[in-house]
Structures are given as C-alpha cells and as structure tokens.
Write a structure and sequence with these properties.
- The chain is α+β, with helices and mostly antiparallel strands and 337 residues long.
- It has one domain: Pnp Oxidase, Chain A (Roll).
- It contains nine helices and 14 strands.
- It has helices at 31-48, 63-68, 118-128, 178-186, 199-204, 215-219, 289-292, 317-321, 323-336; strands at 24-26, 80-82, 135-140, 147-152, 155-160, 163-169, 188-193, 223-224, 234-235, 240-253, 261-275, 295-297, 303-305, 308-310.
- The strands form four sheets. It has a seven-stranded antiparallel β-sheet with strand order 4-3-7-10-11-6-5, covered by helices on one side. A three-stranded mixed β-sheet has the order 1-13-12, with no helix packed on it.
- The protein is globular and about 70 Å long.
- 24% of the residues are buried.
- It comes from Colletotrichum orbiculare (strain 104-T / ATCC 96160 / CBS 514.97 / LARS 414 / MAFF 240422) (Cucumber anthracnose fungus).
- InterPro entries: Flavin_Rdtase-like_dom, Split_barrel_FMN-bd.
- This is Flavin reductase like domain-containing protein.
Length: 337
C-alpha cells in the first residue's frame, strides 16, 4: 500500500467522531425498564467520568464479561407505534412533566473555562446531543490506490433541494485522518446508513488502521463499484446509500489550543440515491423503517435502535390555535395560572 505523502488539495474554496463498541440500547422502552436503565447508567457514568483519560474509548476493562451479563439482542422486535406521553395535552399547557414534575435547577458550564479540559466538552456533547444519525462514509483517494470506510456521528442532512449533508471531522487539513484526506483529494464519497444487520462490521471500521490499510477487509463488508457519479464504492449491505460530492469545507481553530486547527466541516451534495427494493414504496419517496432498521449513536460507546415511535401532527394556526382570537385566549389562560 502507498506510504503517507503530503496532502495536495484540489482547487476548492475553503469555506467530529468515529465510533467504537458497546451495547445497543432501545431509544424507547417501558417505563420500568427506563427507570432501571437510568439508575444503572447514572452509576456507570459516575464511575466512567471520574479520572482516567479525557476521551476514554472503552469504559469497561473487560467488555465481554460485562456484555455476557446483559440480555441477548432481541431481533424479533418490530417498530411499535404508541400514543404521545400526554394525549390530552392542550395548546398553552407547557411541558407534560412526565419524568420530572419539579425539575431541579440547571448548572451553567463555560466550555472554555481555564480549568476545563477540552475532552470534557467531547464527553458532554456526545452524551447530550442524542440520538445522532451515523454517516458510514466510503472514500477513495484521487489516484484510486487507497480506500477508506469509517462511521461518523458528527453528521446530518441539512437540505433536500439540493440534497445537502454535513459531516464533521475532528482533525485538521494539514494532518487529516484517512476519510478526510480522501474526501479533500477526490472530492467524492458515498454516505451509507448503518442498519442493525451489519452494526458489528460497521463498528469495526473505527479501528485506528494505518493509512492505506482498507477497513473493507477488516469489516468483511462488500464494496460495490457501480456508482454513477463517484468512484468510491457503496456498501452492498446498506439499505440506503447516497453518492456525494464535496461542495465546500471550512476549517476551525481550536479554542483550547490557540494556533492549532482542530476541526473541519464538510458540506456534501447528494448526487444519486441507492435504496434496496424491499425498502422503498411504489412512488420511490418513502423508506420503510422496518426494513432500514437504522442505528444511532448515544454517549460513550453506546448505540441506539428505534423500536417504539409516536406521531404528532404539525400544528395549524387557524385550525388548532384558532387564529388571533384563539391565540389571545391561550395567552389569557396562561396569565390566570
């Protein structure tokens, strides 16, 4: 495989988080189970965040022993639709207070306080901004000699016309990791969505492999070279994939270490979609979540699955609020409370 060489950027106007291993957790479970999990997680977090490395990738010294004590993965769970937490909720009523009738006070945290390590912000944000979708990014170097496959949960869709996606990299342009390096060189990628059926394989690609060593081999996943707009491969096992080209990127300065570049945000335009036939409807505009079975990221090395969902119609000003008269009535009701 080719040795690491200085990165040569294409003519492009300059305008973070791969994943590791741990248990799957259901986004929504029964109230009893949630209380038990919350108590147990609080104990784990207390131990996990006391001392140790700032960005500890494995909070369990012997993960296999910990995992063996947990119930097996329930592959029979489908997606269940439930009522909202408070079906009788009315406009102007505020929070339903399902979990905390009398919420405790908040604390203020300065992310750049002199005595606060930057790693604390990493832990805080990945445990608070949840669940996060995962971009399983396939990239290829400009000369085609090196390929990379890695998961990123600093990711989301930000527009549909044109299809735009944002991916964040906790690295600099001068010292890019493999995916960023390839993306800046070739200006191409494929965004694959991770499903439950290949979670372990996808997670394995977060390994710190040397540049030029392909995560395709590590994972055992299948590259398919049939994309219409890019040369990077899509993941055959993925239910949904997006061919993308780099629209622009911006590099950011570190606040913790002045003078150092610490992050890059890339805007990617979707050029073509790939959807498994059994997952798409006849109009080709809706993907079935029962087939997609998407996996999300939570804090630490925890993943989430979606097994319970609920629907809430979008409010209409005239129909639901009652227009100006209804709005004034809601205001008066609040004033009397």
């Amino acid at each position: 495989m080719p040795p690491r060489v200085p990165l040569r950027l294409p003519s492009l106007t300059a305008k973070p988080l791969t994943v590791t291993t741990l248990p799957l957790v259901s986004n929504l479970t029964s109230s009893t189970t949630r209380r038990r999990q919350s108590s147990k997680m609080s104990q784990q977090n207390s131990t996990r965040f006391e001392g140790g490395a700032q960005a500890q990738h494995n909070p369990h010294p012997d993960f296999k022993t910990v995992e063996s004590s947990r119930p097996p993965f329930n592959s029979s769970l489908g997606i269940t639709y439930t009522q909202t937490p408070s079906p009788s909720w009315s406009y102007g009523a505020g929070a339903n207070h399902l979990r905390t009738p009398s919420p405790p006070p908040h604390v203020s945290i300065n992310p750049h306080a002199p005595d606060r390590p930057a790693g604390f912000n990493y832990k805080l944000l990945i445990s608070a901004i949840t669940p996060r979708p995962i971009a399983f990014l396939s990239t290829r170097s400009a000369d085609g000699t090196s390929e990379n496959l890695a998961p990123f949960s600093y990711f989301n869709m930000v527009n549909h016309d044109p299809p735009l996606f944002v991916v964040g990299f906790a690295a600099s342009v001068s010292a890019p990791k493999d995916s960023l390096r390839n993306l800046l060189e070739s200006k191409e990628c494929v965004i694959n969505i991770i499903s439950e059926g290949f979670l372990e394989a996808a997670n394995s690609t977060s390994v710190n492999a040397p540049y030029g060593k392909s995560e395709w081999d590590v994972s055992g996943l299948t590259p398919v070279y049939d994309c219409e707009h890019v040369k990077a491969a899509r993941v055959k096992e993925a239910v949904f994939s997006v061919e993308g080209t780099l629209d622009h990127f911006k590099e950011y300065d570190s606040r913790a270490t002045p003078g150092k570049k610490s992050g890059v945000v890339a805007i990617i335009e979707g050029k073509n979609f790939w959807v498994r036939e059994d997952a798409i409807n006849e109009q080709r505009n809706i993907v079935d979540p029962e087939v997609l079975r998407p996996v999300s990221r939570l804090g630490g090395i925890t993943y989430g699955r979606t097994t319970e969902v609920l629907e809430i119609p979008r409010a209409d000003w005239e129909k639901n609020i009652g227009g100006e008269d209804g709005y004034e009535k809601i205001k008066k009701q609040k004033e009397r409370q």
